[in-house]
């Protein structure tokens, strides 16, 4: 009977065959211990010399790291293992022998590991991060489908920019200028006017020359947009969504969180509602913490966001930023023209902003004015303005950066580990 490591609990006491790779091995005279991985998980195979032929035992002792094999044996429970099961091996069939595998159990530098990212993904740590990433994606679809959202795919090649062109990758689109998308938001607003509640999930690109642990050149965004949703409605969707994905990871990825050494008690506290503070309150908090140089109208950097997050054990919304700091499409507050109805959601433990969102301007004349103030050509945004010409309604949306969210929930320090093949300022390989 062929099966996978993730399914062996169904076969306790039975003999099965698993296609796997040798992640590691050790032997002590009369027993060989094979650390098996098959993509679905990791499990130990135990080969006892007295229970197999000499040929099988010698094969088990000599098999090299990352050699691919078919391993046959009896599944049994093992309380000492975090996985809970092991295999009593009866046969080992080598499929392909790996020679001089470059990533050994010793320590390797980050650059070396990044140069071998295509192989580093096989490690137990990286496997765990990718499984958590996959669970967040799965839970995202579950949440929005359950809430009545329609999935819409905005274009990656665009003729205009939602936040200006300074950090966009430029390309030629036959005889026109085009850009790699930095956000699908404008198109999602159009989709919301047709379908009510929509979300997208796709790659976005920022030509930002940043080397921090929070930044990637190419990353993935989840971008919901909702017709007839005002500012407070938007915040409620965000906190419910983030709570849902965190609790889904806790429920379905306990083993992976354990491999990463993640403090799950911190994650168990992540349940809506989340605290809210205004930009003005955040500024006062920073002054009290000794950040005397920052003044009203300055944007918050990583140290400021971290300092604010230290006062909370849950994600915190910072709302009502100065108009001058935010993109052209954000709705001004009713009682203050100098701030907009926006919020950044700051993750705990120093992971920074994971969501940016706002109520969108729904008045055509005000939007025209804002486009002019930002020096953006009205012609390129003609279709976007027409959304306000034909049955405009209040609407809101947000964007969640997947990689920062994966990094926070899994507890890894750098976002380069939260995406399969990271694109960094000086890295386009592999």
UniProtKB/TrEMBL annotation:
<dbReference type="Pfam" id="PF00152">
    <property type="entry name" value="tRNA-synt_2"/>
</dbReference>
<dbReference type="GO" id="GO:0016740">
    <property type="term" value="F:transferase activity"/>
</dbReference>
<dbReference type="InterPro" id="IPR004365">
    <property type="entry name" value="NA-bd_OB_tRNA"/>
</dbReference>
<dbReference type="InterPro" id="IPR004522">
    <property type="entry name" value="Asn-tRNA-ligase"/>
</dbReference>
<keyword id="KW-0547">Nucleotide-binding</keyword>
<dbReference type="GO" id="GO:0003676">
    <property type="term" value="F:nucleic acid binding"/>
</dbReference>
<keyword id="KW-0436">Ligase</keyword>
<dbReference type="InterPro" id="IPR045864">
    <property type="entry name" value="aa-tRNA-synth_II/BPL/LPL"/>
</dbReference>
<feature type="domain" description="Aminoacyl-transfer RNA synthetases class-II family profile">
    <location>
        <begin position="130"/>
        <end position="430"/>
    </location>
</feature>
<keyword id="KW-0963">Cytoplasm</keyword>
<dbReference type="GO" id="GO:0004816">
    <property type="term" value="F:asparagine-tRNA ligase activity"/>
</dbReference>
<dbReference type="InterPro" id="IPR004364">
    <property type="entry name" value="Aa-tRNA-synt_II"/>
</dbReference>
<dbReference type="GO" id="GO:0006421">
    <property type="term" value="P:asparaginyl-tRNA aminoacylation"/>
</dbReference>
<dbReference type="InterPro" id="IPR006195">
    <property type="entry name" value="aa-tRNA-synth_II"/>
</dbReference>
<dbReference type="GO" id="GO:0005524">
    <property type="term" value="F:ATP binding"/>
</dbReference>
<comment type="similarity">
    <text>Belongs to the class-II aminoacyl-tRNA synthetase family.</text>
</comment>
<dbReference type="Pfam" id="PF01336">
    <property type="entry name" value="tRNA_anti-codon"/>
</dbReference>
<dbReference type="InterPro" id="IPR002312">
    <property type="entry name" value="Asp/Asn-tRNA-synth_IIb"/>
</dbReference>
<keyword id="KW-0648">Protein biosynthesis</keyword>
<keyword id="KW-0067">ATP-binding</keyword>
<dbReference type="GO" id="GO:0140096">
    <property type="term" value="F:catalytic activity, acting on a protein"/>
</dbReference>
<keyword id="KW-0030">Aminoacyl-tRNA synthetase</keyword>
<comment type="subunit">
    <text>Homodimer.</text>
</comment>
<dbReference type="InterPro" id="IPR012340">
    <property type="entry name" value="NA-bd_OB-fold"/>
</dbReference>
<dbReference type="GO" id="GO:0005737">
    <property type="term" value="C:cytoplasm"/>
</dbReference>
<protein>
    <recommendedName>
        <fullName>Asparagine--tRNA ligase</fullName>
        <ecNumber>6.1.1.22</ecNumber>
    </recommendedName>
</protein>
């Amino acid at each position: 009977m062929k099966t996978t490591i993730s399914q062996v609990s169904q076969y306790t006491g039975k003999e099965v065959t698993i296609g796997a790779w040798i992640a590691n091995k050790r032997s002590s005279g009369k027993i060989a211990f094979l650390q098996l991985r098959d993509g679905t998980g990791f499990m130990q195979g135990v080969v006892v010399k007295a229970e197999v032929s000499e040929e099988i035992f010698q094969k088990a002792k000599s098999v090299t790291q990352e050699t691919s094999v078919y391993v046959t044996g009896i599944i049994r429970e093992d309380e000492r293992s975090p996985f809970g099961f092991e295999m009593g091996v009866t046969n080992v069939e080598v499929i392909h022998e790996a020679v001089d595998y470059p990533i050994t159990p010793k320590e390797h530098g980050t650059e070396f590991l990044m140069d071998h990212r295509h192989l580093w993904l096989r490690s137990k740590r990286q496997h765990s991060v990718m499984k958590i990433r996959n669970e967040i994606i799965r839970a995202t679809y579950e949440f929005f489908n359950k809430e009545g959202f329609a999935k819409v795919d905005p274009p990656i090649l665009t003729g205009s920019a939602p936040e200006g062109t300074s950090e966009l990758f430029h390309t030629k689109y036959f005889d026109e200028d085009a850009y790699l998308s930095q956000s699908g938001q404008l198109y999602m607003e159009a989709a919301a006017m047709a379908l009510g509640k929509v979300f997208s999930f796709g790659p976005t690109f920022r030509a930002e020359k940043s080397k921090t642990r929070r930044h990637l050149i190419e990353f993935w965004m989840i971008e919901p947009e909702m017709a007839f949703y005002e500012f407070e409605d938007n915040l409620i969707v965000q906190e419910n969504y983030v709570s849902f994905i965190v609790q889904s990871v806790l429920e379905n990825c306990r083993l992976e969180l354990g491999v990463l050494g993640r403090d799950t008690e911190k994650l168990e506290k992540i349940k809506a509602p989340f605290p809210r503070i205004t930009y003005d309150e955040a500024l006062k908090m920073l002054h009290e913490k000794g950040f005397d140089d920052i003044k009203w109208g300055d944007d918050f950097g990583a140290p400021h966001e971290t300092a604010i997050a230290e006062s909370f054990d849950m994600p915190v919304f910072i709302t009502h930023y100065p108009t001058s700091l935010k993109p052209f499409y954000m709705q001004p507050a009713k009682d203050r023209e100098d701030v907009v109805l926006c919020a950044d959601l700051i993750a705990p433990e120093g992971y920074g902003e994971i969501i940016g969102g706002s109520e969108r301007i729904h008045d055509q004349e005000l939007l025209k004015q804002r486009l002019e103030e930002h020096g953006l050509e009205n012609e390129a945004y003609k279709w976007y303005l027409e959304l306000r010409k034909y049955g405009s309604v209040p609407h809101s949306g947000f964007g969640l950066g997947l990689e920062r969210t994966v990094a926070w929930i899994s507890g890894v320090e750098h976002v380069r580990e939260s995406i399969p093949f990271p694109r960094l300022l000086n890295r386009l390989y592999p």
